[in-house]
Amino acid sequence: MADNETQSGKPGPKFDSAYGFSFSIALGLILFIAGLIISLTLGQGNSIGLIFGIPLLVIGIVLPLFMMRDVFKHNEVSGVCPYCSAPIKTSDATIRLNCPACNRVIVVRDEKLVAADGNQEPSAGSQVRVE
C-alpha cells in the first residue's frame, strides 16, 4: 500500500544578509588574491599582468562594499507607544525598546510599534510613519 502522506522536509537555506555578507567577502577575497598573483607574477616584465592584475585588485576591494550597500541602510520608525500614546522615534534595526514615558516594553515588527506582551491591542493612535 502506497504511503499518501506528504513529506514535510526542512526548507533549504535562504539567501539572506548573512549568506550575502559571506558570499561578498569570499568573492572579494578571491578576486583580490587573483589580482595580486597576476600582477606579481606576470606584471614584472610584462604589462599584461598589470592590465589584468590591478583591476582585479580594485574590484576585489570595491565589490564587497557594493554588494552589501543595502545592509548598511536603516529606516527611521516614528510612532506612538501602544500603551500610553507617547511619541517614539527609533530605527528599524531595533527589536525591543522601553517607552521613555511609561517604561513598558515595545517591540518593532514590520516597521510598526507593537505591545510586547501581545495581550493588549495597540491604541488607535499607534499609526507608524517610516521616513
Show the helix and strand layout:
Blueprint: H1 17-41, H2 47-67, E1 76-80, E2 87-91, E3 96-98, E4 105-109, E5 112-115, E6 129-130
Antiparallel strand pairs: 1-2, 1-6, 3-4, 4-5
> Helical amount among residues, as a percent range?
25-40%
β content, as a range? 15-25%
**Oligomerization:** single chain
Overall geometry = rod-shaped
**Largest sheet: number of strands, sense, barrel closure:** 3 strands, antiparallel
Q: Can you tell me about this structure?
A:
The structure is a single chain. This protein has 2 helices and 6 strands; from the N terminus they run H-H-E-E-E-E-E-E. The chain is α+β, with helices and mostly antiparallel strands and 131 residues long. A hairpin with a 2-residue loop joins strand 4 (105-109) and strand 5. Helix 1 (17-41) runs antiparallel to helix 2 (47-67). The protein starts with 16 loop residues before the first helix and ends with a strand. Residues 120-131 have low confidence and may be disordered.
